[in-house]
């Protein structure tokens, strides 16, 4: 059986790691042992932070909605409850965008949510 030289495979694997480590500082970009560890850790962080990014943006949308809703005399939770009772199904991303770009349209939604709340119906009667 003939001998198999593995230089080509190793070189390709190393090249792939170095490409992923491009821009890293010090030995982390040009020494295979350090680069491999750094790239592995970077991939763990990127996986985790793709999930965290979704959480962070949802929190931002909620803060923006809450700020806009308080001008209409409601809190965020009462506003969402009112929208649900009114049968309005708009996600928080779109609500946040409306609050920033179309304040008049957003205030119409606030009025609909207010009207759908039970204490608003009791006050009207």
Automatic annotation (TrEMBL):
<dbReference type="InterPro" id="IPR005813">
    <property type="entry name" value="Ribosomal_bL20"/>
</dbReference>
<keyword id="KW-0694">RNA-binding</keyword>
<keyword id="KW-0699">rRNA-binding</keyword>
<comment type="function">
    <text>Binds directly to 23S ribosomal RNA and is necessary for the in vitro assembly process of the 50S ribosomal subunit. It is not involved in the protein synthesizing functions of that subunit.</text>
</comment>
<comment type="similarity">
    <text>Belongs to the bacterial ribosomal protein bL20 family.</text>
</comment>
<dbReference type="GO" id="GO:0005840">
    <property type="term" value="C:ribosome"/>
</dbReference>
<keyword id="KW-0689">Ribosomal protein</keyword>
<protein>
    <recommendedName>
        <fullName>Large ribosomal subunit protein bL20</fullName>
    </recommendedName>
</protein>
<dbReference type="Pfam" id="PF00453">
    <property type="entry name" value="Ribosomal_L20"/>
</dbReference>
<keyword id="KW-0687">Ribonucleoprotein</keyword>
<dbReference type="InterPro" id="IPR049946">
    <property type="entry name" value="RIBOSOMAL_L20_CS"/>
</dbReference>
<dbReference type="InterPro" id="IPR035566">
    <property type="entry name" value="Ribosomal_protein_bL20_C"/>
</dbReference>
